[in-house]
Amino acid sequence: MAWRVAQDLRDGMVVNLGIGLPTVVADHLPPGREILLHSENGVLGMGPKPAPGQEDHDLINAGKQPVTLKTGGCFFHHADSFAMMRGGHLDVCVLGAFQVAGNGDLANWHTGEPGAIPAVGGAMDLAIGARETWVMMSHCTKAGEPKIVERCSYPLTGLGCVRRIYTDLAVMALDAAGARVMAMAAGVDAGSLQARTGIPLRFD
Amino acid sequence: MIDKRVATLAEALADVRDGATVMVGGFGLAGQPMASLEALLDQGARELTIVCNNAGNGEDGLAALIAAGRVRKIVCSFPRQADSWHFDREYRAGRIALELVPQGNLAERIRAAGAGIGGFFTPTGYGTALAEGKETRFLDGRWQVFETPLHADLALILAERGDRWGNLTYRMTARNFGPIMAAAARCTVAAVHEIVELGGLDPEAVVTPGLFVQRVVQVPRRTT
Fold first, then answer.
1. pLDDT single digits (tens) A137-156
2. Testing the interface with B: which of A69, A80, A124 to mutate, by most B Cβ within 10 A?
3. Which residue in A30, A103, A164, B200 is deepest, having the highest Cβ count within 10 Å?
4. What is the mean pLDDT of chain B?
5. Which of B78, B173, B176 is the mutation pick for testing A, counting most A CBs within 10 A?
6. CA-CA distance, B116 to B10, in Å (whole number)?
7. Structural domain contains residue B67
8. Domain span including residue B142
9. Are A56 and A66 in contact (CB under 8 A)?
């Protein structure tokens, strides 16, 4: 999944990778492309994780893991960092999700269950600010329920923001006409994919 | 003569009152002013409102202040973490209030306070539970939510170098909320790893101009 997302990032793009699954995309960036990774805690030009023993606790990513800085990279404070996000200066953000709706609504910050502690971080800012929001998630829940749904039942992060969905089964584009399948994983066919998806899919 | 250097954190925090709103710099542990938080714990102020991106990690710093029952409310974007057990327990027991704020709104509300802005409209959070009850307007082709500035009595920040005028530089991602919190608080106490002579900081590289800082205290560098 991470490999596939990485192949779709073009030379020169400025990209924010959300915490969790999307962070892995950084390990699969195609060589020969200059892709600038932005991290909400104040880095542009983030590099891969450091060699063991080279970690610096002042140089971390949004998931608070040690990272490196590429030559040409720079640091800035939080208001500047979120100006980059909210001001429309990022090409793509890749976020994890609990659910995505056919109209592009995203839910990824709160299960809404009693006793659950919500944590939103920068997800709402990325959802409205990045030029495109891509979601990376398992196609279904552990119980086998579709995560791509007609309407999100979890609390929303952003309205109509998701443009692409990458799952373990397929890559889908969302537009005004609904969801179009761009690619399917080996061994997946249209019928089985549709059966695991809560909205109608186009295979044109 | 302007000299903002204070010998100890205990002295720098002696006047913190019960009920104070305290901004705490740091994103995770990077830039978290651990020594200042320990001094605030020793100082004894209670019923604090804390403005910080996270709600404490492990046992030290902000987590220790929460564990000691000294925090009444926390304004933050990302409280839930693998090691936020003190906050988790206090929150579930109803002993600490949480104002959850999208991180960009947190940063911009702090920036607005420091810049004398009375509020702003932003698309962030529109249509979500975090914007419920807030004023909205259709501006620039999209729905936006009105957000208000976040002021504080005190900001505790960690910087790399400082001088006696309060000019500061930072180290890598430890910069995070430091510069905007310094501007937003009535009193900013900067813990720094090194105090240099006036002129010892490249004027082109000063990140926080000294007028935003009231007290500068040198603290040892921590290795973790």
1. 999 999 999 999 999 999 99
2. A124
3. A164
4. 97
5. B173
6. 30
7. yes
8. 9-218
9. yes
Q: Please tell me which of the candidates B105, B142, B176 has its beta carbon nearest to residue A42.
A: B176
Note the pLDDT of residue B223.
62
Rg (CA), chain B: 18
**Chain B residues 34-63 within an 8 A CB cutoff of chain A:** 53
> What does the pLDDT average to over A35-55?
96
Nearest CA in chain B to A79: B107
Write out chain B residues lying below 8 Å of A39, CB-based: 173
Listed in order, strand segments (DSSP E) in chain A are: 14-17, 36-39, 43-47, 68-75, 92-95, 99-101, 106-107, 132-136, 148-149, 162-166, 170-175, 178-184, 201-202
Low-confidence ranges of chain B (pLDDT < 50): none
Q: Which residues of A touch B106 (CB under 8 A)?
A: 78
Q: Which of A120, A128, A155 sits opposite B77 (nearest CB)?
A: A120
Which residues, 6 or more positions from B83, have their beta carbon under 8 angstroms from its beta carbon? B57, B58, B63
Q: CB of B129 within 8 Å of any CB in chain A? A: yes
Q: Give the mean model confidence (pLDDT) for residues A173-177.
A: 94
Q: Which amino acid is at B45?
A: A
In chain A, the domains with their CATH numbers are: 2-202 (3.40.1080.10)
Instruction: Give me the interface pTM, i.e. the ipTM.
Output: 0.95
Does a structural domain hold residue B158?
A: yes
HSE-CB at B72 with a 13 A cutoff on CA atoms is: 10
- Whether B3 is covered by a domain: the verdict is no
Q: How far apart are CA B143 and CA B129, in angstroms?
A: 15
Number of domains chain B contains: 1
Helices A78-86, B103-115: inter-axial angle, 10-degree rounding: 120
Q: Do B100 and A59 touch (CB under 8 A)?
A: no
Per-position b or e across A1-20, b if 16+ CB within 10 A of its CB: bbebbbebbeeebbbbbbbe
Q: Does B173 touch chain A (CB under 8 A)?
A: yes
Residue A4 has pLDDT above 70, yes or no: yes
Give me the phi and psi of B87, to 5 degrees please: -65, -45
- What pTM did the predictor assign? 0.96
Angle at A24 between CA A22 and CA A26, to 5 degrees: 100
